[in-house]
């Protein structure tokens, strides 16, 4: 048998030992980078990372820079695939030639969604170009309406290859809503915002936003304005800066029905024109109870506090929280002006004005499980919700232990069960069908006049040319 017959057919096999030996190549190198496949995308989009690759003095530096460059390019969502070859450069003794091959994703998409919120259902249309002018800008135009209860138009431009951060985004918006809780029902907000998303770190992901809003609050048609909210009527400005931090350790293995882990989100906002500070915290924890995540205990909590500074004590109604069935199922509204649970008013009696609050707390626990014989898009859950909201301008009092105990004692609660449809045929979204029982202060279910099956969902259809 000759030596030639011992050679395997096909390309040579690169073993792990050979790769590790190459990555420990000790001598200095010089790298010349070439690229191909950019037809629509401008060279300037990838030039910053290519310059860093060419500055690599060792194989180890090149590999580290390529990993960072690949993460950056992949995060732009304008390439289907990115590959490279590193081979000796015959024109230089210590030189290497790197060839980076890009395959572009020239995606344009159109989406239609149907959203139900605050007892109104409105459609939304969205158009997006993920690589505008080949500059790694993503342009999105969305319009929602024409129902007067929830109408808006947004235009956003996202720069996905900025010199600072993961992406930067400019947004122009005009939003109009009908609010049912108080006499200033017609709300319109026009404005401009700029946001910057930072890369992930050991301290979480950070997002910064600043913006200007011009807000107008008016009564509905010929209705009057209550004395308590009279000074909030009309046009006002709000300039703000906000910082959000997300720390997520959620994981979901292939085949698992539910996720597991912890998700924490905090937000802090300072508004100059209104002289208010807003703090929000959300926490979610998913604890698997069975293998493959067939049953999971999920715990959720939300805390919020708004306070005024610089001689201002009153918080305008458009800057306050609202607490509804999104937090505590089975209730149309909670907080100042909401009917007492122990003695609900008759259905024909008009509700009191509910102007919102500046202190909010809500928590829920849910046991999520698969249904026997149904694996996939439909699951079941049983839940318990509790929450409270108040308006208190005395910041020192709110931060005391006595106030916290009183606040918790005044919370309203509900229990119930329901079905969750995670994937609706032909649609992308989530829909819940729940049966919720509000509880009185002794823990007994009561008949509440504003009972309903579900009050919030969103379903979406999307098409793209990719």
Describe the protein's architecture and organization.
The protein is mainly β. Helices cover 11% and strands 47% of the residues. The chain has two domains: 13-104, Roll (Ubiquitin-like (UB roll)), CATH 3.10.20; 108-464, membrane protein fhac: a member of the omp85/tpsb transporter family (Porin, Beta Barrel). It has six helices and 19 strands. Strands 4-5-6-7-8-9-10-11-12-13-14-15-16-17-18-19 form a 16-stranded antiparallel barrel. Helix 3 packs antiparallel against helix 4. The model is unreliable at 1-5, 341-350 and 449-455 (pLDDT under 50).
Topology at a glance:
Elements (H helix, E strand, L loop, with lengths): L2 H4 L9 H8 L6 E7 L7 H11 L4 H17 L3 E10 L6 E10 L3 E10 L2 E13 L4 E8 L5 E10 L7 E12 L7 E12 L7 E14 L15 E15 L12 E11 L4 E13 L6 E14 L50 E13 L2 E17 L4 H4 L2 H9 L2 E10 L6 E12 L17 E8 L2
Parallel strand pairs: 1-3
Antiparallel strand pairs: 2-3, 4-5, 4-19, 5-6, 6-7, 7-8, 8-9, 9-10, 10-11, 11-12, 12-13, 13-14, 14-15, 15-16, 16-17, 17-18, 18-19
Helix pairs in contact: 3-4
- CATH homologous superfamily descriptor of the largest domain: membrane protein fhac: a member of the omp85/tpsb transporter family
Give the domain tally.
Answer: 2
Number of continuous helical runs: 6
As for the CATH topology of the largest domain, it is Porin
Biggest sheet, open or closed, and with what strands and sense?
16 strands, antiparallel, barrel
Which key terms come to mind for this protein?
466 residues, Porin, 2 domains, 16-stranded antiparallel beta barrel, 6 helices, 19 strands, 47% strand, globular, disordered N terminus
């Amino acid at each position: 048998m000759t030596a030639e017959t011992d050679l395997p057919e096909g390309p040579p096999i690169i073993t792990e030992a050979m790769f590790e030996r190459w990555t420990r190549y000790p001598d200095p190198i010089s790298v010349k980078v070439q690229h191909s496949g950019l037809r629509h995308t401008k060279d300037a989009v990838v030039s910053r990372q290519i310059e860093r690759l060419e500055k690599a003095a060792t194989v180890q530096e090149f590999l580290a820079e390529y990993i960072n460059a690949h993460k950056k390019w992949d995060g732009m969502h304008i390439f289907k695939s990115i590959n490279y070859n590193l081979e000796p450069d015959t024109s230089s003794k210590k030189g290497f030639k790197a060839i980076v091959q890009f395959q572009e994703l020239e995606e344009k998409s159109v989406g239609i969604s149907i959203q139900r919120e605050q007892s109104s259902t409105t459609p939304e249309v969205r158009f997006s170009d993920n690589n505008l002018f080949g500059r790694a800008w993503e342009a999105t135009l969305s319009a929602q309406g024409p129902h007067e209860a929830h109408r808006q138009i947004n235009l956003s431009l996202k720069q996905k290859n900025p010199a600072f951060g993961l992406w930067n985004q400019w947004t122009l918006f005009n939003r109009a809503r009908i609010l049912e809780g108080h006499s200033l029902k017609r709300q319109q907000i026009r404005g401009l915002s700029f946001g910057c998303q930072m890369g992930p770190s050991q301290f979480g992901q950070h997002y910064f936003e600043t913006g200007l809003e011009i807000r107008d609050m008016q009564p509905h048609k010929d209705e009057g304005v209550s004395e308590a909210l009279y000074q909030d009527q009309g046009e006002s400005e709000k300039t703000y800066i906000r910082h959000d931090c997300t720390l997520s350790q959620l994981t979901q293995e292939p085949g698992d029905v539910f996720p597991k882990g912890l998700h924490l989100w905090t937000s802090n906002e300072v508004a100059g024109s209104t002289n208010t500070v807003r703090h929000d915290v959300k926490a979610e924890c998913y604890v698997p109870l069975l293998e493959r995540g067939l049953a999971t205990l999920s715990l959720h909590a939300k805390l919020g506090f708004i306070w005024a500074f610089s001689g201002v004590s009153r918080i305008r109604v458009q800057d306050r929280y609202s607490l509804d069935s999104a937090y505590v199922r089975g209730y149309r509204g909670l907080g100042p002006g909401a009917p007492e649970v122990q003695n609900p008013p008759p259905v024909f009696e008009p509700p009191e004005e509910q102007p919102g609050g500046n202190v909010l707390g809500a928590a829920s626990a849910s046991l999520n499980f698969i249904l026997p014989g149904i694996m996939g898009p439909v699951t079941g859950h049983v839940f318990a919700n509790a929450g409270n909201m108040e308006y208190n301008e005395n910041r020192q009092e709110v931060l005391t232990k006595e106030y916290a105990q009183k606040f918790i004692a005044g919370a309203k609660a509900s229990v119930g069960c329901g079905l969750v449809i995670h994937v609706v045929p032909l649609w992308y979204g989530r829909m819940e069908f729940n049966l919720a029982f509000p509880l009185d202060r002794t823990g007994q279910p009561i008949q509440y006049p504003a009972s309903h099956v579900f009050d919030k969902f969103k379903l979406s259809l999307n098409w793209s040319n990719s």
